[in-house]
């Protein structure tokens, strides 16, 4: 889980951006999994721990381990109140350090597009989840403009600058994600689309959060002249949709898959 790792070195900036999207998507995802309380969980690709905290709040787990390849993200997660109840570790979903069948459930929340070999990661999740246990994953639907940062990418592209997609953006397709589960031999696989509205009170809030964390588009913006940045902002002020209350508001979409480890 090393590709695009350099984008995740600022824990505070990531946390500010991600919580706005992670929490509503994660709530729908966990409701859909519909698992009982008191389970042992693995959060693979935990970042700063936003989804991990959601697991604690909504699933009353017996135990939670959370891993991420970014030392900076794990360092930030260990400073949060969540760390009192979670074992945060630096780790790679493609080569987990846990014993066979160590968990009742495992999740990859907004991670699969950053994993170089999702089939290898899914095989590892299956290995560390007990027979009968559940594995679930969800990812922004990048190929169908489902990403929360798509509108920023589009505006940069209108400046005549091509924004390179994530190396694993095609992994976010529903067919691809379901294929990773089936290739791992998981049973009773099911899929669903998670869609909801993201809203910002004003443009300054949108701009600060969208450009605070590095990405292909943001790195391009940081190299622009002041005049080009103002042109970009003017484009966004015009093109970003607004709701009836005048807030910037638009739909985002993620693909979700779940499956069971055969007994």
In CATH, what is the class?
A: Alpha Beta
C-alpha termini separation? 28 Å
What is the H/E order?
HEHEHEEHEHHEHHHE
> Which percent bin holds the helix content?
25-40%
The tally of structural domains comes to 1
Q: Label the CATH architecture.
A: 3-Layer(aba) Sandwich
The average pLDDT is 91
Task: Give the C-alpha Rg.
Answer: 18 Å
Number of helices: 9
Oligomer: single chain
**CATH-level-4 superfamily name:** Vaccinia Virus protein VP39
Major sheet details: 7 strands, mixed
Principal-axis shape: globular
Question: What would the keywords be for this entry?
Answer:
263 residues; alpha/beta; Rossmann fold; 7-stranded mixed sheet; 9 helices; 7 strands; 23% strand; globular; disordered N terminus
What does this structure look like?
The chain has one domain (5-147, 166-199, 253-260): Vaccinia Virus protein VP39 (Rossmann fold, 3-Layer(aba) Sandwich). It has helices at 11-33, 50-59, 71-77, 118-128, 150-158, 174-183, 203-212, 216-222, 226-239, and strands at residues 40-44, 63-68, 87-90, 103-109, 129-140, 187-200, 248-260. With 263 residues, the chain is an alpha/beta fold. A 7-stranded mixed sheet has the order 3-2-1-4-5-7-6, sandwiched between helices. It has 9 helices and 7 strands. Helix 1 packs parallel to helix 2 (50-59) and helix 5 crosses helix 9 (226-239). Strand 1 (40-44), helix 2 and strand 2 (63-68) form a beta-alpha-beta unit. Residues 1-6 have low confidence and may be disordered. The chain is globular and about 60 Å long.
